[in-house]
Amino acid sequence: MRIRLPFQLTFLLLLLMGGVVSSAGAVTLPAIFGNHMVLQQNSQVTVWGWGKTGEDITVTGSWDNKPVKTKVNNQAQWQVQLQTPAAGGPHTLTVQGYNTLVLQDVLLGEVWLCSGQSNMEWSAASGIDNAEKHVAEATYPSIRFFQVAHRTANTPQLDVQGQWVVCTPQTMKHFSAVGYFFGREIYQNQKVPVGLINSSWGGTPAEVWLSANAISANPVLAQAAAQRKEVEWGPVQPAKAYNAMIAPLMPFRLAGALWYQGESNTDAPDVYAQLLPTLIQNWRSGFQQEFPFYFVQIAPYKYGGPEEHPRLAEAQQKTLRVPNTGMAVINDIGNIDDIHPRNKLDVGKRLAAWALHQTYGQKNIPFSGPLYQRMKTEGNKIRLFFDHADQGLTAKGKDLTLFEIAGEDRKFVPATARIDGNTVVVSAKNVKKPVAVRMGWSNTAVPNLYSKTGLPASSFRTDDWPRP
């Protein structure tokens, strides 16, 4: 049966349909721009979105009320740059085209991207030390979270799924614990708003977080990536997470990036020595910033193969050769029986120490334990020199442990080690002509060498001999 609608109703429906058509061409923003967001202070920030081809766009921040104008291009995209002043707010950000969007409660402060695998993703709800206390205390209106949803894509995408929320006990409970503790340290020290973007995925190898071009341009990385086997908990193919969870955030202005990953790459530590520096450059290029990149050295754990932990940790330490990077050593706060150590507080604080010292100029804050620098043979002994040992070294316990020494036969034996100022002297009774030293060189080793500032030394070796 055919139904004849009254004229007034037909006219109303046509108006509504016209409204739908108009809204399809109206100005829109990616999810990273929204109420409660944090924009990087004292910077030229990029704001972008979509609209109808030729549409006039005006973007205005209430901090200076200076409109910036552009037109939507023939790809239905637009982009502008705004200059932000020092930290503060709340402000509004107004985007006007055929329609008007007004973002409320916008703060200016420090924005950090947090990424990696499960130890970065791990939240208070997942189980951390003193979780109930930390959750109850997590009322920080000036700290904001943006959680990127798990997604994969074959090509770089334009948007992510997520929204900015204010830090409350309810929102903190499900956000990256390491990211939160880092952000809290920055907020409490700098007294400025902090925005934290968490884009991480448990169990993912680093290859999924680089662009396809970055992988294919390096034959070593491409070959290693091609050998990865599928797993049930997440992607392993190159660029899958990068395309869907990193690329859409570019070129959002950041203060820096945090990285906690490596457990899924312990099978190929030599490859990781190229992989992580490539990732850093890949991200810096995409975000169009040479931002600081601070990462966590993985903790000791009962891995299946020999030397998986120390060799991956070594690859991470080599990444410090990349300018403007830092490494938080956590071999003393891990759990050899649990690949997810529950002490996330000190991990966040150690990352924050790097940022506070290196990025924010707080030179009184200790930020790194001893890192092996060089060795010198002195008869039947070897003297070891370290970076970040200017204030001296100490042992937690009566004697230094987990040192080994080898002669020309390349056979390592347990060694005696003693602290001499800011150096360590190593020897063994039956090694008359020593050529190499190792410390903490096993999957479950927890060294007891520290700086007098209270931070642990990374495991290390002075040789470059291949894996047995």
From TrEMBL:
Keywords: Hydrolase. GO terms for biological process: carbohydrate metabolic process. The keyword Hydrolase applies. The keyword RNA-binding does not apply. InterPro entries: SASA, SGNH_hydro_sf, SIAE. SUPFAM superfamilies: SGNH hydrolase (SSF52266). Transmembrane segments: none annotated. Residues 110-353 form the Sialate O-acetylesterase domain. This is Sialate O-acetylesterase.
